Structure formats: C-alpha cells, structure tokens
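Following up on my earlier thread - several people asked me to post the actual chain instead of describing it. Fair enough. Here it is, all 565 residues.
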Amino acid sequence: MRWNLKSKPKREKVQALQNALQVDEIIATLLVQRGIETFEQAKHFFRPTLEDLHDPYLMKDMDKAVNRIESAIANEENILVFGDYDVDGTTAVSLVSSYLKTITPNVATYIPDRYAEGYGVSFQGIDFAEDNGFSLIIALDCGIKSIDHVEYAKEKGIDFVICDHHRPGEILPDAVAVLDPKREDCSYPYDELCGCGVGFKLIQALGKNRNQTIRDLVPYLDLVATAIAADIVPITGENRVLAKFGLEVINANPRPGIKALIQNVKKKELTITDVVFYVAPRINAAGRIKHGDYAVRLLTEFSLEQAVAFASEIELFNADRKDLDKQITQEALLQIESNNETENFSTVVYQENWHKGVIGIVASRLVENYYRPTIVFTKSGDKLAASARSVQGFDVYNALEACSEYLEQFGGHMYAAGMTLLEENYQRFKNAFEEEVKTTIQPEMLTPEISVDAEIEFRDITPKLIRILKQFEPFGPKNMTPIFVSYNVIDSGYAKTIGSNNEHLKLFVKQEDSVGFGAVAFGLGHQLEKIQHKKPFNVAFSIEENEWNDTVSMQLQIRDIKNET
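Reply from S.P.:
Thanks for posting it. Predicted structure:
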C-alpha cells in the first residue's frame, strides 16, 4: 500500500483562510486542498442551501423537454418513463414518474430486463410503447448513444426526451430534447450530476411552470441522494447540496420504500456511506437477480405495509446476489491462476454461465485482489456482455475506446463501464486491452494508494476539530473523508484481533505525551505483530463516530500500518 501525502497548499492561502474563518491550520489546509479558499466559498461549503441549486433552464434543451412534456399533459397523451435497471436508473424513474402522476394519470414506467434486453433504451421497450399507445418516452440514465433506437421510435410516431449523464458520442440522438450536462454544447454550470440528478432538474423545471418552489420538491431528494451515493459521482457543488438535503429526508421522513429498507439499520442517523452499504445494494439486487421493476414498485409505494412486503422480497434477492458474487469471484480467481495471468497488467475473464447481474460486483472484487483494470464477461443472448472496473487514476473508458474495433457497443465512466462483443472477437479484444493497459498505465497505478490529506499529532485531535470535520459531510468523491497520518504511535497493550476470522484489529493507540484513542482496523488482523512489543509504528487513519448500544463515541479508523524504519 502506497501512502501518497498530498502536497501542502501555499502557506499564504492557508493563513488567509485561517484568519477569515478563525479555524486551526489543519482545517484551513483541508479546505484549501478542496479548492475552498475564501470566506464565501467556505460559507457555501459548510452551509449549503437549496437556493444554491442552479436554474434548470440553464441546461441545453430544457425548454424543449418541458414544452414537449407539457404538450403531452395538455393533450392527455400517454407518457412512458423509461430507465436503466441500476440504482441511478430506478430512482430516476421513480422520481420522474411519481412527480408526473401528481399532474396526469397517463404515466407508466418501463425498466428493461437486464438479460432479455440489456443496458439502455431497447427496441423491445419501444415496441411496448407502440403496442400500448405511448407517444412520448422520457429516457433516464440512458439514451445518449441510442441513435438507432430514437430513429426507430420516430418511425412509429413516438417522441423521445433523453435525460442522461454519460459521455455523449460524436453524434447525438435525434430526440425532441437531449438533456445531458456533459454535452459539449451545454453550458450548464455543473456537469457531474447523476442520471437521477438530471431527472430532478427536469421536475424542477416542470415545477417552475406550476409556481412550485424548490421546497415543494424536497420530498423527492431521498431518491436523488440515494442515486448520488450509489453512482459514485463527486460530492461537490450541486451534488453536495442535493446529497445533504436528501440525507435529511432519509433520516427524518423518507418515502415508505426507503423506510422499509432501513428499518433494521440500528443507527440514529445514516450517512452517505450507510446509503452506499445498506440501501444501494438492495435496490440494485432487484435488477441483478430478478427485475428492476421490483425496485420501482418499492420506491413508488405509498403504503408502508406494502413497502415492507416488497423490501422483504428484495432482501431475498440480495441474499442470492451475495451467494452468486462469492461463487463467481472464486471461479474467476481460479481461472486467472490456471491461465497463468496473475502477472498481467489487466484482468479479462469469461465464463458463459456466470450470472450477468453480478459481473460488475465480481469485477470490483477482482480489482481488490489484483489491483488492475478488470473486465468480467458472460454470455448474453448471441453476444458476450461485460462489466469493467478500474484502478485509481486509470481511465478504463479511454482504454475501451482504443479497443473499440472489437466491440459492438460500450459506454460508461472513467472507473466503470459496460460493453458487448461477438464471441469470436473475445480473444482479440482481450489481447488488445492487455496491450493498451500495458502501454498506457503508469506503474504506480498498479499499487493501491492511500491518499493522505495531512500529518497530525494526536494532541491536535480535539473535540472542536472533530466537530468541524463532521461539518465536511457528506463525504464522497472530490470530498473524501480526511485521511491523516501520525508517526511514532504505540499500542497501549490492548491490541487484539476481532471478527469471525480474526480479520480485523481493535486497539488503543497513543503518542508520547498525548491522550490515547480507541481504534479499529478493518481487514488488518494480519498486521497484529507489527504493533506488539511496544515498538513505535506509523498509522494512516480517519476520525469517525462509533455508534454502539445507543452510545456514540469517537474512534480512529486505521486504514494502514507501517513499521518505523
């Protein structure tokens, strides 16, 4: 594990912010590292308000989207709200459809079957729209590359409004409106929205037409915060505002579906991390194991009793997902070893009967194991489908683009992507991808890295520091939980392994002339000998609150341990 200590910001910037805010140097340093250099920027960071959200009409084509939807409502047309089967897609569909149903009853939802239709807008979905009299499809979290599908729909007299956040291709679909802040010709001030976030901007624009304020739309923010957490988008700017107020809804008055999912979570207040680990996998499990419709039914249900029944079904899907994930990961690791590919620069594996719903999770597991760009393929109809995951700093989307001659289609982000190819092109693609990664990846990217914000002495960890750090939440990409490093640390003799397989450490650490702190080190049980015998060691850690038996206490979460050299 590499420790990458961030370079210290310019001293004059830190001092100026320190003086403006009357805070410790550590806090001012962390803020400047996050691009916050003035009192006004700090005010927006620490006290985000709903008024910080941008005017939705700044997004290219928003006026066209609203005009077409308003026309459909006025003419009593049937509107089909279409979205992907993952968390971002199902929350977006739930949000837009439930909002539209407050205006018109002529609204239905459609989630494509992961196995029969695959990712994104499908011809089958368009046929469904035609067969059932829908003249407008609103596509959420997908559609930016659906050129042929939109053309197919036009031939049937069906219009499209596309709400996406993925990178566009060179040509945009010929839809009535294409809402995507990543469009090159879109000057919207914030381009890191998730699909559900773009959907929220759409209902915000529709709400403006009805003299609704942003306050009227707050009840929908539990869905937006869930999507932001699950889609791993930056928690900056507009996303930070949406996530903060969405979390407040989740903790105070969530919709019945989310309430049913979190009813067994024994925490007074959920964080973004809790949403990632408790809520998102269960919503995802519906589309992975059965069908994304189950998630939409759960998230749009008004009756808590019925929502609890839906949540129980989804809990079973999630248990199945865990079993499959574990089994396929073991089979993939065996394949890598038997093919003598443990020293490769990339991992590309394939087995035709692997469950398509969990290959993305398996790709993440393999990255944890070998730490290199990874693609997991399975059979899907007459083609192979795959999920890709990457490592810190390496753009897997660009690597796929370089090998696109072998692919039927692909899409995604820097760190996660999906693709299909013909089986006869599998080996050629695998060789090309390995060569592309080998020639473009920096050697240091192949070693896991802990990005350390600052060095800190234990005596500087005060209640005031902890109180201000808590106000940095919600955490996520571009605003990660601060990681500190401290040197010459000793354990007070209480260190022990915990967990069913002794995989974790529990200890009490201190520095000379400082108070000590309780600490936990997940997955570091094997490092017990490093901290015994009262020899000093170094730790990289974050500071967190530990909630146990209704008691909240502060503890260090140790991310890595290194011996003094």
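The chain is about 40% helix and 20% strand. That should answer part of your original question.
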